């Protein structure tokens, strides 16, 4: 019985790693190359950087402001680079900077799609804001999906909230959720999820 369990675990680990790829991001002076990387769930990213550069995950708002406040639970490499494992690269956009050179515009994005598609490719008519948020999110959609059912799942995939969009603009109270990363999905668009951060 013990041998069978170990064999099952080994086969599962081979099947999961068999489909993963490790992508490399380097630096050219004060820019990341590539500055935008599209990957699939399960892929890893190896940062190969000069000794004065690191990669630090931040929120989109911090990224837009050229700030350096780390994202709670986000990834960070050492100066000189390192591997960011697939467990840290959930579906959605991961905004990152070089901690020493964000003000110079040294920043990038890793977009993780569930099927190798960039985040929001199937969500071109949906916007969620504010993100990150503390208690309330607003969903704006096109009329094509205005009456769709939705769910919000935690990082393990467990659905923690579900409902139906009431109009082109719907507000959802997420104050009862603990701080962390969640994923918003429309039921008819289950192949893609939008990363949502509650803080």
UniProtKB/TrEMBL annotation:
The signal sequence is: 1-20
Residue intervals of the Blue (type 1) copper domain: 24-112
Q: Where is the Secretion system C-terminal sorting domain?
A: 128-195
From the record, what ranges are coiled-coil? none
Cross-referenced SUPFAM superfamilies: Cupredoxins
Tell me if Ribosomal protein is a UniProt keyword of this record.
no
- What keywords are annotated for this sequence in UniProt? Copper, Metal-binding, Signal
The protein's superkingdom reads: Bacteria
rRNA-binding keyword on record: no
The molecule here is called: T9SS type A sorting domain-containing protein
């Amino acid at each position: 019985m013990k041998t069978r369990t170990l064999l099952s675990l080994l086969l599962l680990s081979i099947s999961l790693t068999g489909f993963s790829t490790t992508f490399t991001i380097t630096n050219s002076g004060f820019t990341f190359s590539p500055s935008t990387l599209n990957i699939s769930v399960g892929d890893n990213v190896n940062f190969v950087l000069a000794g004065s550069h690191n990669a630090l995950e931040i929120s989109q708002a911090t990224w837009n402001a050229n700030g350096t406040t780390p994202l709670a639970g986000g990834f960070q490499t050492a100066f000189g680079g390192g591997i960011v494992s697939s467990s840290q690269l959930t579906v959605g956009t991961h905004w990152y900077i070089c901690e020493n050179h964000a003000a110079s515009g040294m920043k990038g994005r890793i977009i993780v799609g569930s099927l190798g598609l960039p985040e929001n490719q199937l969500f071109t008519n949906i916007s969620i804001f504010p993100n990150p948020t503390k208690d309330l999110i607003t969903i704006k959609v096109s009329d094509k999906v205005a009456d769709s059912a939705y769910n919000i799942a935690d990082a393990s995939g467990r659905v923690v909230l579900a409902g139906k969009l009431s109009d082109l603009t719907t507000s959802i109270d997420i104050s009862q959720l603990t701080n962390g990363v969640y994923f918003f999905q429309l039921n008819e668009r289950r192949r893609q999820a939008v990363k949502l951060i509650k803080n």
